[in-house]
UniProtKB/TrEMBL annotation, chain A:
<feature type="transmembrane region" description="Helical">
    <location>
        <begin position="315"/>
        <end position="334"/>
    </location>
</feature>
<keyword id="KW-0812">Transmembrane</keyword>
<feature type="transmembrane region" description="Helical">
    <location>
        <begin position="369"/>
        <end position="390"/>
    </location>
</feature>
<feature type="transmembrane region" description="Helical">
    <location>
        <begin position="186"/>
        <end position="205"/>
    </location>
</feature>
<keyword id="KW-1133">Transmembrane helix</keyword>
<feature type="domain" description="ABC-2 type transporter transmembrane">
    <location>
        <begin position="19"/>
        <end position="391"/>
    </location>
</feature>
<protein>
    <submittedName>
        <fullName>Putative transporter</fullName>
    </submittedName>
</protein>
<dbReference type="GO" id="GO:0140359">
    <property type="term" value="F:ABC-type transporter activity"/>
</dbReference>
<feature type="transmembrane region" description="Helical">
    <location>
        <begin position="21"/>
        <end position="41"/>
    </location>
</feature>
From TrEMBL, chain B:
<dbReference type="Pfam" id="PF13732">
    <property type="entry name" value="DrrA1-3_C"/>
</dbReference>
<dbReference type="InterPro" id="IPR025302">
    <property type="entry name" value="DrrA1/2-like_C"/>
</dbReference>
<dbReference type="InterPro" id="IPR003593">
    <property type="entry name" value="AAA+_ATPase"/>
</dbReference>
<feature type="domain" description="ABC transporter">
    <location>
        <begin position="4"/>
        <end position="231"/>
    </location>
</feature>
<keyword id="KW-0547">Nucleotide-binding</keyword>
<dbReference type="InterPro" id="IPR027417">
    <property type="entry name" value="P-loop_NTPase"/>
</dbReference>
<dbReference type="InterPro" id="IPR050763">
    <property type="entry name" value="ABC_transporter_ATP-binding"/>
</dbReference>
<protein>
    <submittedName>
        <fullName>Uncharacterized ABC transporter ATP-binding protein YhaQ</fullName>
    </submittedName>
</protein>
<keyword id="KW-0067">ATP-binding</keyword>
Amino acid sequence: MRNMLLIAKREYLEQIRGRSFRISTVLVPVILIGLLSVSAFTGHRMGTGKHIVIAADNPALAADVRSNLLSNKRTHDTVDVVAPFTAQDRANLLARIENKSVDGVLIIENSASSKPQVTYISESSGDLMDTSKLDEAVNNGLINLRLTQQGLTPEQVEALLKTVRIETLQISSKGKTGKSQGMAPFYKAMLMTFLMTMPILLYGFDMARSIVEEKSSRIFEVMLAVTRPDDMLTGKLLGVGAVGLTQIGIWIAAGVLLSGSALLEPVLRGDIKVHFTLIEAVLLPIYFVLGFFLYSAFFSGLAATCETAQDLQMYLSLAVIPTWTSFAILPFLLNNPNSPWVAAASMFPPTAPLVMVPRLGMLPAPYPWWQVVVSIALMLISIWAVIWFASRLYRVGILIYGKRATLPELLRWLRYS
Amino acid sequence: MPVVELAGVTKSYESKVAVRDLSLSIEAGQMFGLLGPNGAGKTSSIRMMMGITLPDSGRINLFEKPFDRRNLDRVGYLPEERGLYKKMKVLDQLVFFGQLHGIGQEDARKRARDWASRMEISDSLEKKTQELSKGMQQKIQFIATLLHDPGLVVMDEPFSGLDPVNTTLLQDALLELKSRGKAILFSTHRMDQVEKLCDAICLINNGEAVLSGRMREIKSRYERNHVIVEFEGSAEFLKSDEIAEANNYSGHAEIKLKPHGDAQKLLHEAASMATIYRLELVEPSLEEIFIETVGGKADA
């Protein structure tokens, strides 16, 4: 126990003091915020800020389409109207597209006929958002026009066309109905899966890399002469795990501080707001630690059989198994969080840390607490078993230098020590 | 009473027997040499003493009790494959190893400073290990092995890669530990060092002890049939019937007598042909005993 804590402390302090910790602590969020900002920025550019001219044979229709296009309060578009228009106007507008003083021209002809001609001319091939927005605006305008021509007043037209929003309700197991959260659970499940998989992969592989490094620096034999292999492994896991939690803690703290500031404003401008419940906030770190221990112990066992970092690369594909699995389960989870398969995945140790918390987020209260208890118990047992196996591989694997172990050799090692 | 004792220890890997029925014991205040050609089973034996691997059969006692990992705090081990944390500062590293062996942080720090000054590396304590030369790293490893003042010191090839000045520095430190009653075992294939430092040896070959005991006793088992002659004049006497083998290095001859060859007779013959400045009957060196015992049987 004493040595295990000493090893954990050494691992923690060395990594925290290391340059790579400082760099990754700063760089990862900077890159993430950078990417989000770029996508937010381009997103805004794509949908807004364009200068469009509507050329129509009917001024009332043109004004209606214009007001439809500008109905979104967040839009930065400028929309001018030329109605009615002549062939000369048309030629002038096309010339303005060429000299880039307007982004596009929407031409509406034969609006009184049953087959109006509507054309959008721009220099770029046009994006999906623009087309669908224009489509909606023009069609709404044309319907308005036709209904008004049928003798209806604008108020009657509005009453006729008033759309209805469908409210979705979710029924709990006690038979009460509550407001459904719409798309929020989807975003939340995605976010939680990312929150779990990325650090588990990053730190799990960090752990494996450090074991290969120590193996190649031959320090293990010195260590094994004073301490037991399972103490070494557990100590290392605790140390690296604590480093991971520290880093995530720093990111969360920085995120909370920055979220109030103007710096993140463009990123947070999106409508995705995810709220975590207290239970999720408690269970998320628990499952993170359990998942980290399970996968890292597994990676460590593999690392003990490797001779160099190159050998370790071979196992890289294994490292993405949690990601694949969790993302593969996501559609099933969203479809029916109560299905037996999803319930089983939320208790099966390799997938439990990635599935259980998002699943709870989608289930109505009361939560199936017995499943939470079973999944945590199963994970603890598996962690113990994996550490036991890994430390055996560790003890024998680290003493055999010069080649990477084959599968039959691995099985023999388990029998040996 | 023996500090470490192996009785009938055997260890096999797959079909290869690494150590077969090995017995030895090391007393307090004794410097013990474990000798043998490469692949003889030295490292395998040491790893069993340290609990890194377990014997298939036989018994290992440490500090007069059956092997118990808890007693490893009282052992200092320098493996053949050395290893230090490359990116860690030297002082932190020494304190870490001291703490692993059960000494307090402040105590470990003080001891590390004392040892560093003795080993002439005080200036390097705040440096990272990777910034130091191999010889310096070896000294740090040496200090890490001894920082907790172990009752038993086990060193696998402790002087390999060291220059003569540093070898002497380490040898002196070991002799001082011995005088303080520590038991020291070191494995090597450098016979001259063993001859100079060790009180007792065990020579192993193909996993088996082929020769063991106190150095004096072993040497006394072999006849004094080696003669060194310094002379001027004819070297014809080197063809004497008493001689089995002779190497003449212009005026300095090293001679091995035939079994029951007579050194007195040789002296007379030599004196009749040349001027003799020195004729000395010497005991065989450990190297010669080694070669004679292991002979062509060694793997390496």
